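Hey team,

Filing this mostly as a record. A colleague (T.K.) asked me to run one chain through the structure pipeline before their review meeting, and I want the input and output archived in the tracker in case anyone asks later how it was produced. No errors, nothing strange. Just documentation.

Input sequence:
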Amino acid sequence: MKKHKYLFTYKIVYINVLSIVLFGIMAIISYFLIKNDLLSINLNIEGLGFFIFIIAAFLYMVIHEFIHGAFYILNGAKSENIHYGIALEKGVFYTRCGEYVTKKNIMMSVIAPFLILGVLTGVLSIIFDLPYLYALSFLNIAGCSGDLMMFIFFLGRDKDIRFKEIDDSMTFILETKEDLSNKKFIGVKLIKELDEEVESKDNRKFMITKESKPILIFLVILILAVLILNIVINKLL
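Output structure:
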């Protein structure tokens, strides 16, 4: 039976809506935990605490992407075909798998950060009453909307599928015997069926888009300004 190759892209609106829903669910869970004294709320994120929390949140996002990459490799992908990048103009840190992988590989990769940095660390933060870790877990779960949407999408696909990502990982190729040409999906959009292979334009190991660089510079300056202002105010007081 002939295999088809389809080019897909993400529907950002659906991902953003799911992120808001996840944020709301986590807010309700947090309210329940705090109300029943299962989690303390002694978070100090003013001044220097805010600076440290932002750095921790940034590192959490970086670790999130490296977990994606690690699970791609653990399930058979070659490390040289795993690429990492920042595209802040699209609101994403990303991991791109530049080779075809199996359904098992992609599903384990997309769900791993949610389970490890979201569910597992969330449970540990409640058990040991670690509000900062809980806050990071909260943010990670709310930011896993794209991963969860992809996991659900792949649940409904045939076992024979092969998958690889293109460029900033907002587009991907799906190879399958299943005819997807007339199907509609939540969260992803079919662009076209491919007649020939499509490759990424940039295969550097670590990539930062041109648009991201000024945004990163601005964020660094802003964080440093907050830190300096906090030091100055504390000295004056």
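Quick notes for T.K.: The first helix runs from residue 12 to 35. The longest strand covers residues 4-10.
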